[in-house]
């Protein structure tokens, strides 16, 4: 029975329309996946050396054990945010003599068969050889791998429970972040060390012959919590449930936006669009996480001298909202494009609304990243230049580029890894966005003249802001030329 | 009011619409009938500037529609689901449409009040999103939004399909009232010969993109049409 259900699932994904069509996107995704795979394996092998650098004098396996609890929690959070709930088209099975508990078990266990969930093994197995084996012996390394597998099960199951139970509420995430910040403070001042506890706990488990059973019990407990939840809340349609929408609608009022008339109305509409679709909400969360991207690089001495890298990070971080959402501009209104084109909305207002939206995203991300100024004058200058470049050049590139993307974006269906509606054009637009400034700064910095490059970028950006009217007129003309192609493309439902 | 000249639309070299000349005068109710693929929707999309004509042009009040905005304030239209914003509730959708046309909240409320009978107690005030409505209620929402701006020209594609019998009768009554009281110019396509002859004064039959009949409605029209489409 289970094998049948799994087979149906497999057929469903393979026979989904668009699976074969999107060859170029698949290749891009494939290359990215391969890159990460190789990267993880490599990381697993060199991790002991890195850990020794970071915490000298302590055995790498000890350090790893201490960090493990944080990784478990982090992965849980990521899964909570991005893992799609496994659903099943119940109507087709309801009429068949299939036991309910079969379906529940199947729903819960299916994610465990997803190979993507075991990506962490690519890095755990090499590390068990390079870091765990030398200390705990081969059997210890084997137990370590088992523990990692069961931790994946635990995280996956617990995340789907939390998601079914709480939905994806922003308040919950903020609460979680606050608690984590509290734990971090306790750790930092040495009041209570979660790190130390985790170190002892996992060290003990790896050392004991049957230590892995404890984690297995955790996974089983998570499974049972899920089962219990289903037993208490069972309605046939809830198998398929995502988020209860009834309360969602009507909560968001953007009266402050409505003062700007038509343009404000259109921006308020897009804000509703973002908040009422899972895929766009996921991107919103991602962009919040990416705001911290700079922390990976700025404290690091290695990058201090790499000016090209620094400007890349500055542009990426200060423009994150625009970069992530900009690739969907116009395109994401595809499902009601005919409506927009036949209402009393002139082309100028339409383009201007999109421009203002991107501009506010730009300004928003820039303000949120001002704390990075604490890393010094150079970083602050980089960020200001990056902001000018984003607001003056990249916005126009995105808007102009958007007229070429006539593929309908299905927002209602979707999860974090959904590539529907993404074409190679989305990747091409990134080149002028990031590669041009990086290259410019890189070349000038060879002659220690990176400041001239920054000056050029800032001037071009400023010019783009000052001459926005003229630039937008070009985009308007382009939009009118492409209008029919967009209309036709958006009408095609995949 | 609406003029088309030498209007053709080719797809892959094949003409799906070929109208040498047609004029729709103010206040006229224009019914478009024809089998699937006859070019009804294509004609409407050309008037609404959603597709580009291969040759010729459409003018509203003497002004070309192609790549212009001025006609949009005069025309209300509902062709298909791409005229709905599916993640809004009907109330939000009407409010948005009203704002776009510069209507006050009071105007919109008064208009919706007049639509109460047509909505039959559903649609308004519910927190359901448009994508969760039934096909029939989606259609009612779209038709109402087309009327919301008090347009001089109304364009509806297959307005009767998916509606229940009572709603079909209410819609017919509503359209006839609008025709009488506001001199609204209407373009309505339909597969249902009964309904379209009851509402429209002029019936145009399209076949493979060509106008094959263009008559004013008389008591015999329905019979003639039935004969024409009989197989």
Describe this structure in words.
Chain B: This is Putative ABC transporter ATP-binding protein YhcH. Chain B: InterPro entries: AAA+_ATPase (IPR003593), ABC_transporter-like_ATP-bd (IPR003439), ABC_Transporter_VariousFunc (IPR051782), P-loop_NTPase (IPR027417). Chain B: Residues 2-230 form the ABC transporter domain. Chain B: Keywords: ATP-binding, Nucleotide-binding, Transport. Chain B: It comes from Petrimonas mucosa. The complex is a heterodimer of chains A (494) and B (231). Chain A has 494 residues and is mainly α. In chain A, 72% of the residues lie in helices and 0% in strands. Chain A has 22 helices and no strands. Chain A has helices at 2-14, 23-54, 60-82, 90-94, 100-109, 121-166, 170-188, 194-207, 212-232, 261-275, 278-290, 294-297, 301-304, 307-318, 320-326, 337-342, 347-368, 377-402, 424-428, 430-446, 450-466, 468-491. In chain A, α2 packs antiparallel against α3, α6 (121-166) runs parallel beside α9 and α11 runs antiparallel to α15. The longest helix of chain A is centred in the first third of the chain and has 46 residues, at 121-166. The radius of gyration of chain A is 25 Å and the shape is globular. The longest helix of chain B is centred in the C-terminal third of the chain and has 18 residues, at 165-182. In chain B, the strands form 2 sheets. Chain B has a 6-stranded mixed β-sheet, sandwiched between helices. In chain B, strands 2-1-4-5 form a 4-stranded antiparallel β-sheet, with helices on one face. In chain B, α2 packs parallel to α5 (135-148). Chain B is α/β, with parallel strands linked by helices. The mean pLDDT of chain B is 92. Chain B starts with a strand and ends with a helix. In chain B, α6 links the parallel β7 (153-157) and β8 (185-189). Chain B has one domain (2-84, 149-230): Rossmann fold (3-Layer(aba) Sandwich). The chains are: A mainly alpha (494), B alpha/beta (231). The interface between A and B is medium-sized, with 35 and 35 residues.
